[in-house]
Structure formats: structure tokens, C-alpha cells
Amino acid sequence: MKVGFVSLGCPKNLVDTEVMMGQLTAQGHELTPHPGEADVIVVNTCSFIDLAKQESVDTILEMAEYKRTGRAKKLIVAGCLVERYRADIRKNIPDVDEVVGTNELERIVAACTGEEPAASNPFEAYLYHDLTPRVLATPRHYAYIKIAEGCDHPCSFCVIPQFRGAFRSRRFESVISEATRLFSQGVREINLIGQDTTCYGEDIGIKDGLSLLLSRLAQIPAAHEKWVRFLYCYPNKVTQKLLDTIAEHRALVKYIDMPLQHASGAVLKRMRRGSNGDFFLKLIERIRRTIPGVAIRTSMIAGFPGETDRDFEELCEFTKAAQFDRLGVFSYSDEETSGSYALDGKVDKRTIYNRKRRLMAIQRGISLKSNRALIGRELPVLVEGPSQETDLLWQARLSTQAPEIDGVTYINDFGESPPKQGEIRMLRVSEAHDYDLVGELTSAPVAAAPQVPAQPLFRILAAGRAQTAPLSR
């Protein structure tokens, strides 16, 4: 049986897709990048905000057409949209044959084949481990590892705990085992993910769990230089020990992804996150003092219920003071099952749009200034491959540019040694743009990664953009 996958949303969702693909290939089924050739099509959905829900529905309807124009006999919908709208999907989209929720990933084989699924505990929240079959859909040189699932934070705008469940950590040695295997296969960069990675270990009795995990990962022997990054940390959980650990180990990239959501104390209180801009500025100062050269990324929400003009001005002034290296802005999405849905003081869509544009304009100036300061410097980059924008350039990333969410570094001069995907090379920055950089290679490869034979390609749709990625390693 041939199965085609479309994966939508965040890296956490992508790992779920990789686990489902692994379950199927372990049973001898074949994956195909061509929906017209698939016997079964699986759409792993996102439903975090309105735009994500609409993209999920549009993709389901697009894939449903292959039941008429291709050979597909089944269309399966998986993921977050199922957890929120299971009954509605079954009722309103008759082309959908099966639904698989975020805690039902082990049902994917039975859903595809029509066989009776193995007995399982419907009350046990799902969490994969190092022995779980998994087919990586990222390029060969980087991978994600989910170190925890679920969330215990009470943020009023977020519905994720409702369908991902309570926070639960993977076993420490399970994460180490999976990372060791990935590095031995030639992966250069591992990105740790979870709804809140800074809570790792708290539920299983490990004090300073993320710090200990990062330290151990940094010491895994590898035949090549490696990068270890973690994403989605909660500001109140960023300890001095965590910062000291990042500063201590070369393999831990100097990058902090810390979504703050706002700077106004009044808005943060309504978000049920607490804290305020002054606390954040002191934390940012401590981070930069402890980790020289660190890049700090954050995200903000524009137009949260009750956000006044004064609150927004406070956010703008905070952004200017903080000088974030990376910043993303979300328009508030009024989700009907969220705590903020019942709040008064809703902000109209035009105001939200204008506030988002203004905040991003402030950040563009900050980002350009920061990038210009890098001109003339030689820095290590991870080579991604030929640019999708133009045949004349190759694409790479600094360690301070996370995959998919940050800007990139373009290579316009290869020097004496042409680049290869997955190499870490030294690059001299020659041009700076709002979010991207341009430069020329100045060195031979740094401990070249082992070459892996080319594998069949698979189409993954993530963050609204289709990309081609290897099926396996």
C-alpha cells in the first residue's frame, strides 16, 4: 500500500507526522511524494489559530479531490483539528474516511488498512520514545527531537493543553539514545522541542532537567561538529544554571527562543502569564551578560482583548529597548474554547492588523542594524543547499538562525571548495538585509559529515510552504 502525507503547522506536529510514517513503514507500507499515486492520503492538521484552521480545511478538501482524480481510496485526517472538531469533520467532510487524534498516533496503521487496531488505553496520553519507528522528513543535516508533550501553563489565549494534555517529559536516557543515533547518522543539528522545554524533567523528579539534558547532549561523541538548540522556553523558567550551561558548551548554540507574548503587565495578567516588561528587560540583560553573542528570539500577540493604545505603546517601547535579534508577531485569534474568548474589550481586526504592521516595522529596523554589525565578520554556517529563490546562490544558516522560523544566509561566492549540503563552513558576511545575510565561503569544510546515499523524496507542507525533504536516513 502507498501512503502520502501532508504535514501542516509547527515542528511538534512534524514529529507526529514522522512517527506516523515510521509506524507505516515498519509494517512494510510504502510512502509516496505523489498524491496521485497514493492509495491512502493522510493530512496532519494544525488548529492553533484561525489561519491554521482554514489552511487545514483547504488542504483536506484539496487532497479529497485525489479520491476522484487519483487512485486514493482513503483520506485520513490527523492532528490538532481532529481533537477540536472531530464530530464536525465527520459530519461536514464526507470524503474523510478516518480521523486520528494527537493521542492516537499508534492507530494510524489500522486507520490506513482498515484492520482492527491493537488494544490501547484511551485514557493514556501518547508520548513517543527512542524505540518508536520514525521516518525523518527534514533535510539530512538537521532533525527535531520532542522531549516533552502537553502543557500545564494556564495561558488564556492557548487551547493546546485541551488536546495535547498535561505536561509529560520523555525519559532522560530515551532522549540521549535518540540523539546519539541521529548524530551517528550524520545529523549536524538537533533541535529540542516541546510545548515548554524549560519544564523538562519537573514531572519525573529531575531538578534542572533541561540543563542536565543539554550538558549531556553536548558531550555525545560525534565524528563532526554538532549543534544543539532548544526552542519554546518559558521566561519564568529560565534559570541561571540553564544560562551557564549554554555558555559552557560549544555544541550548544547561543540562541534563546523565549516567547514573551507582551510587555504590558495588565495585558500579561489577562493572558494569565504574569510578569512585566521591566522583569523581561532584566532577564534579557542577564542572558546577554552570561552568554556573549547570544541571539534572542521572541514572539508577541497584537490585539489581545483589553489591549489599549497605551498597552500597545508600552509594547513598542519595550521592543525598542530589548533589541531582539528575532521577533515574530501573531494577530490575536479569538478561539472559542480558550479562556480569553470570554474576555471583554475585544480589539477590531483593522486595529490588530495596523498594530502588527507597526511592531514589525520597528523590528525590521532593529534586525537590519543587528545584521549590518555582522558585515566583515567570519562566522560558521550550516550549508542547506541550492537556494529556492535563485539558481545563482546557495543557502545556509548561522547557528543563530533556527530552521524555518528565522532568516537565512545566502552564499554568493564558494571560494576554492564548492559547498555540499550539511557541511559547516566559515563564511565572511558581505551584505546585510532586513532579515537575511549574504557572504562568501572562506574555508574548507569543518569535519565534513559522512555522505549518505540519496533517498526518495517526500513532499511536506509546513508553515504554508511546500518543501522537498528526504524520507529517511
Domain unit count:
3
> Do you know the CATH topology of the largest domain?
pyruvate-formate lyase- activating enzyme
The major β-sheet equals:
5 strands, parallel
Fraction in beta strands: 15-25%
Cα(first) to Cα(last) distance is 21 Å
Low-confidence sequence ranges = 447-473
Got a strand count?
A: 20
Q: How helical, in percent, are the residues?
A: 25-40%
CATH architecture of the largest domain: Alpha-Beta Horseshoe
User: Any idea what the shape is?
Assistant: globular
Q: Determine the mean pLDDT.
A: 91
CA-based gyration radius: 22 Å
Reading off the top of the CATH hierarchy, the class of the largest domain is best stated as Alpha Beta
Number of contiguous helices: 13
What is the structural class? alpha/beta
- Please list the strands of the largest sheet in the order they lie side by side: 2-1-3-4-5
Query: Oligomeric state of the chains?
Result: single chain
| CATH homologous superfamily heading of the largest domain | tm_1862 like domain
Describe the fold and architecture.
It is a single chain. The chain is of the alpha/beta class. The protein folds into three domains: 2-125 and 455-470, Rossmann fold; 142-372, tm_1862 like domain (pyruvate-formate lyase- activating enzyme, Alpha-Beta Horseshoe), CATH 3.80.30.20; 378-441, OB fold (Dihydrolipoamide Acetyltransferase, E2P) (Beta Barrel), CATH 2.40.50. 32% of the residues lie in helices and 22% in strands. The chain has helices spanning 11-26, 50-64, 66-69, 80-92, 108-113, 160-164, 172-184, 209-218, 240-248, 265-270, 277-290, 309-322, 349-372; strands at 2-7, 30-31, 40-45, 74-79, 98-100, 142-146, 148-149, 168-169, 189-193, 227-230, 255-257, 295-302, 326-331, 378-386, 394-398, 409-413, 424-432, 437-441, 457-462, 465-470. The strands form six sheets. The protein has a five-stranded parallel β-sheet with strand order 2-1-3-4-5, with helices on both faces. Strand 9, helix 8 (209-218) and strand 10 (227-230) form a beta-alpha-beta unit. The model is unreliable at 447-473 (pLDDT under 50).
